[in-house]
Amino acid sequence: MCVLQYDEDEDEDEDEDGHEDGPGDEDEDDDDDDDDDDDDDLPNMMLWEEDCSGRKPLEGPLKEDLEEALAMAERFSQQYNSLLRRFEEQMFNTSSILDLFNQQFGWVSSLANNTDSQDGIFHVQTVIDRESEEKPDEEKKPRETDVSLQLFDSPTMNISVSGDIPWTDPKFSEVVAQEALDRYKETAVLVK
After folding, report:
1. Region Disordered: start and end of each range (predicted)?
2. N or C: less crowded end of the chain, CB within 10 Å?
3. In a shared domain, residues 128 and 185
4. Of 52, 67, 90, the domain-final residue
5. Where are the alpha helices (DSSP H) in the chain?
6. What is the spatial distance between Cα 39 and Cα 37, in angstroms, rounded to a whole number?
7. Claim to verify: residue 22 and residue 79 sit in the same structural domain
8. Tally of structural domains, the chain
9. Are 37 and 62 in the same domain?
10. Which of 72-76, 141-145, 172-176 has the lowest average pLDDT?
11. Cα distances (angstroms) measured from residue 28 to each of 11, 12, 31, 171
């Protein structure tokens, strides 16, 4: 370990060896004095060579403190690596989940981005309530309600809803909307 010693009682006439400048030394120091004019305010620093030699091994409490600090640094390094691995795993899992959502529901975002319809998202054009036609050879079919609608910018779709659900029932709207979305999803996925 190197220790700096500050010599606050600096004497400008003494050199590093503690000797006063003689008449023959002035020529050598004149060049140095010109360069050191700005450094005159700084204290002299000296190194203690016996502390910097590295020949004395660390002993006693200093060695124990160093070993304890190194062990603590190793523990922190292991904890950091462990946290980093867990973070990477969670990021990979999150990315996988986002990819899965994109595969399942990417059509929704592409639909929203590519919709040019000014009429809105869901436009019902006609609702026709039809009675079944009776034929002698066939059983009587239940009534059906035909709905013609347009979803986003898709072509017009015709959907038949069972007559068991009156068109004034909220479930009727749910059935129509779900069928329209399913059909739109099929065509949107096939196009891509």
Report:
1. 1-47
2. C
3. yes
4. 52
5. 26-35, 49-52, 60-114, 170-191
6. 5
7. no
8. 3
9. no
10. 141-145
11. 18, 15, 6, 105
Residue 148 pairs with which residues in a beta bridge? 126, 158
Residue 85 above 80 pLDDT?
yes
In 3D space, the residue among 164, 155, 165 whose CA is nearest the CA of residue 125 turns out to be 155
Geometric angle at alpha carbon 170, from 164 and 176, rounded to 5°: 70
Same domain, 47 and 75: no
In this structure, which long-range contacts are made by residues 94-99, counting pairs with CB atoms below 8 Å and at least 24 apart in sequence?
A: none
Residues 64 and 19 in one domain: no
Separation CA 173–CA 151 (nearest Å): 13
Question: Is it the case that residue 88 has pLDDT exceeding 80?
Answer: yes
Q: Are residues 47 and 99 in the same domain?
A: no
* pTM of the entire predicted model: 0.34
User: What is the pLDDT, as a whole number, of residue 111?
Assistant: 64
Task: Quote the CA–CA distance of 189 and 192 in Å, as a whole number.
Answer: 5
Residue 152 is predicted with a pLDDT of 72
By the 8 A CB rule, do 128 and 155 touch? no
Residue with structure tokens 């065509």?
A: 187
Q: What residues make up the domain containing 73?
A: 58-114
Q: Does residue 39 share a domain with residue 77?
A: no
Phi, psi of 13 (to 5 degrees): -85, -10
Looking at this protein, which amino acid is placed at residue 139?
E
128 and 106, same structural domain? no
44-47 and 4-7 strand pairing: antiparallel
